[in-house]
Amino acid sequence: MRQADELAALLGRLVTLDGVHQTAIPRLALIRSSQPTEPMHGLHLPALCIIVQGRKQVMLGEQIYLYDRTHYLVVSVDLPIIGQVVEASTEEPYFSVRLDLDPVQLSALMLESKPNATKPNATKPGEGGHTGAGPGLAVNPAAPELLDAMLRLVRLLETPHDIAVLAPLAEREILYRLMNGEQAARLRQIATAESKLQQVNKAIGWIRRNYDKTFSIEVLASEASMSPSALHQHFKAVTAMSPLQYQKQLRLQEARRLILGAALDAASAGFRVGYESPSQFSREYRRLFGAPPLRDVARLRGASALEMVGA
Fold first, then answer.
1. Which domain holds residue 94?
2. What is the count of structural domains for the chain?
3. Are strands 71-75 and 137-141 parallel, antiparallel or unpaired?
4. Were 116 and a residue from 79, 180, 191, 302 both cysteine, which residue would form a disulfide, CB within 3.0 to 4.6 Å?
5. Dist. CA 43–CA 38, nearest whole Å
């Protein structure tokens, strides 16, 4: 794939250190890893991710998505996932490009064009089709036209004076290619305020703002303008977990961040995110991350892979 080769060479010039690197182009990040990483938990925001060298796997619930330079990944709502770079080396580092998705731009583009509505989302049999709120994460083959547009966008980093005028045009083409590809239905749902996906997204937003508080499914359903049963059904279809499981993941990920970044002890971090029982917090932390808080954080300290989940 010529475009992937050119992108890999370009990232090799632009990014020499491992990690996630924000760029002068809004919403665009470049990612590098010179070795495979540990499985990393994190909240992945809506984005397009294209690998140009190496391989990565992402786990949402019990489903594992493996992708490489022949595929792209789209995340349509805020999702707690586990990400792991599985193929990388000093000689051939893992390189990827992440473009955060802007619902405002998607809405404007949808009004101006007629996206291809004939291609359903890539879902398993029995999962939500293009008319419902299917999984909020999908992997699809990367078309040459999409890679061409991404290559033009990233090239602008070598001519910064062109970014203000040309970057919006390249980003617009990327979104257009997505809206006419395998993810047409999912992108339309991101752009449509009354879609089931956006109703679930309202519930997700409410949980994110109130993750440290107890809540009832009735309150959450009212926030999403859905019945409790409909919310539970569509929420699980999108996120692969229930609202309470989603809240628990947010709580534990935030507690981990507080212990690692703010130097809080485990009990204080657990209390800060809404746990009243230190023993319950420790049990659930170990169940999610595979080790008790102090041992887990000791393993993570100094690991650049901590930020690799969203790339």
1. 2-191
2. 3
3. antiparallel
4. 180
5. 16
- 3-state SS of the chain is CHHHHHHHHHHHHHCCCCEEEECCCCCEEEEEECCCCCCEEEEECCEEEEEEECEEEEEECCEEEEECCCEEEEECCCEEEEEEEEECCCCCCEEEEEEECCHHHHHHHHHHCCCCCCCCCCCCCCCCCCCCCCCCEEEEECCHHHHHHHHHHHHHHHCHHHHHHHHHHHHHHHHHHHHCCCCHHHHHHHHCCCCHHHHHHHHHHHHHHCCCCCCCHHHHHHHHCCCHHHHHHHHHHHHCCCHHHHHHHHHHHHHHHHHHHCCCCHHHHHHHCCCCCHHHHHHHHHHHHCCCHHHHHHHHCCCHHHHHHHC
Which pairing describes strands 55-60 and 79-87: parallel, antiparallel, or unpaired?
antiparallel
* Backbone angles phi and psi of 91, in degrees to 5: -70, -40
CB of 79 within 8 A of CB of 44? yes
Residue 29 shares a structural domain with residue 123: yes
Q: What CATH number should be reported for the domain holding residue 306?
A: 1.10.10.60
Phi-psi bin for 126: left (phi > 0), alpha (psi -120 to 50), beta? left
Tens digit of each residue's pLDDT, the chain (311 residues)? 789 999 999 999 999 999 999 999 999 999 999 999 988 899 999 999 999 999 999 999 889 999 999 999 999 999 999 999 999 999 999 999 999 998 888 888 888 876 454 454 443 333 333 445 578 899 999 999 999 999 999 999 999 999 999 999 999 999 999 988 887 777 877 877 678 888 999 999 999 999 999 999 999 999 999 999 999 999 999 999 999 999 999 999 999 999 988 888 999 999 999 999 999 999 999 999 999 998 888 887 755 444 556 66
Give me the phi and psi of 13, to 5 degrees please: -80, -35
For residues 40 and 185, state if they share a domain.
Answer: yes
pTM to 2 decimals?
Answer: 0.86
Q: Identify whether residues 119 and 267 lie together within a single domain.
A: no
